[in-house]
Specification:
heterodimer, A: 86 residues, mainly alpha, 3 helices, 0% strand, B: 122 residues, disordered C terminus
Chain lengths: 86, 122
Amino acid sequence: MRELALWAAVGELLVSVPLLVRLARGPSVCDRVIAVNTWSLQVTLALLFFSFWAQRTIYLDVAIWSASFSYLGTLVWARLLERELL
Amino acid sequence: MSVQLVAAAVLGVVGLAFSLSGAVGILRMPDLYTRIQCSGKTATMGALPALLAIVVGAGWSTTYADRALLVAFLVVLLNPTSAHALARAAYKVGVPQSPRAVSAARGPLPQDDAEGGEGGPQ
């Protein structure tokens, strides 16, 4: 079971390769923001699988931090593009 | 080969497959709005089965299952919100649609040549 979790973590990180390509050559800022958002979700899943593989629950908090703050970052970017930030 | 292991493996494979398809869609789709749609597919059908795989694999009443369900709640709550806000901001900023896209504001594609060389309706 634990080896399966490690392979799932590696798979989620390999999935993020097309997202990095889109992040590198996105024509607009919004393309890059959506690539970063999806990539951080993949990183969150990889962290959850990795924490189960390593049997260390401290990585779970890192994953929750990543999940919540990546969406917060997307909302801040949308607000900045739409009107002023404050 | 217990039932728990098989269920977790199947859920993980489904999540990985949908995550891969969503990532390829973000790479290959023609404009921003279709890419946002692919991002939503990645979150809904890619992340939630993977999180359920963690819940099934680690056991229901463990710390891993609790945190995975909390992340699933966050994803379900925040991903449509952020996708909507980003698409709205992009539309207001003026990120162009693909010339092959069909929208009510621009009218339907002409019937005779949908992939025509005129560049679509004006």
